[in-house]
Amino acid sequence: MKKILIPIDGRSSPARTRSAVGEAVAIHHREPVQIHLLSVQPAVSGHVAMFFGRGELADIHHRVADEELAAAQAQLDAARVPYVASYIVGRRAETIVQHARTIGCDRILMGNEAPATGVTLFGSLAQQIRQLMAGSSDCQVLGS
Question: Whole-prediction pTM value?
């Protein structure tokens, strides 16, 4: 069965998330696919981590990931489309690519969004993922 990964990023607009999830729902109605939602939470330095109690930082990551994933989960629940939701702590593009490879994903749906100023300097997250996936996978990266 084919697998679709939808990275959910708290920095992206809600419209981008709705776009990606809507596309996944449409694909699910055309063909059998597994849908995976992923929230990537930023790692913090050891210096910052020392100010948190044991497990406190993990609880914060988990709570923020739940908040980021909530709208996508609600949209999929409303469409009665099954999914797997998870979060991982790490660098965004690299973590998404590693997770896509781990689950054997066929498509990464990013949704569409108007380019921001930083995109011209560093490239969009989708562009970074495409570059990391280039030549090493059959996984398509769709969206901006």
Answer: 0.86
